[in-house]
Amino acid sequence: MKTLKERAAGTPGTGLRIDDLHVRFSGARVIDGLSLTVAPGEIVGLAGRNGAGKTTTLRSISGLVARSGGVIELDGVRLPSRPESVARAGVAHVPEGRGIFADLTVEENIRLGLVRKVPAAQTLRGALEEAFPVVVRLRDQKAGRLSGGEQQMVALFRGLIGKPRVLLVDEMSLGLSPRALLTAIEALAELGRAHGIGVLVVDQNSRMLHEHCDRVYLLGGGRVRLWDDTSNIASAYFE
Predict the structure, then answer these.
(1) pTM of the model
(2) How does pLDDT run across 20-29, given as a tens digit for each residue?
């Protein structure tokens, strides 16, 4: 069996698998037996009401919160629990609020995405510059001076630049105009599918998820189920 280091170096794999994940805060069960998969090149959405545990799910994958139980695997190998090890294994995380460093330039922010030893020829810089030309135009600007939409483009660029195995994106639509959101999700889906990057997108914009994802999970009660019926969105969120 290949190690995570060998998988991250470029060997094709099976993607992300979460089985019976549990996360507890102060004894309270936030995630209670969650299971889902994201295959290479697949775009998967995760929806749910505020407080359902969507952000916690992403943070548990990337090692930012402790897992109380269950298994998380990347390409058939158990994912470590330390954030830096998760990143080196090939998981990139665009957090809610984007995680941009305001005092650094756009280019300096982007370089922070190169946490893995990926040969220059294997990065997605060329494809990303075509998909997000605004980032190229603003590369020498301080990131804190950018609009919310521009910062989100930088965050996505940074998340993808190292050609991760899996990209986690939390609340991508936050602060974006409808036009900017369409540009971002279309570019994300196209790049992920073209380069075999699995993408797990958490968002309140359920319409966007259903229009652009291969499938959508609905999170409630700490567990997920496939969400195929969008005829009554309100009941799905507040049941």
Answers:
(1) 0.88
(2) 999 998 878 8
99, with CB counted inside 10 A (0-12, 13-18, 19+), is: middle
Three-class secondary structure assignment of the chain: CCCHHHHHCCCCCCCEEEEEEEEEECCEEEEEEEEEEECCCCEEEEECCCCCCHHHHHHHHCCCCCCCEEEEEECCEECCCCHHHHHHHCEEEECCCCCCCCCCEHHHHHHCCCCCCCCHHHCCHHHHHHHCHHHHHCCCCEHHHCCHHHHHHHHHHHHHHCCCCEEEEECCCCCCCHHHHHHHHHHHHHHHHHHCCEEEEECCCHHHHHHHCCEEEEEECCEEEECCCCCCHHHHHHC
Domains and CATH numbers, the chain: 4-238 (3.40.50.300)
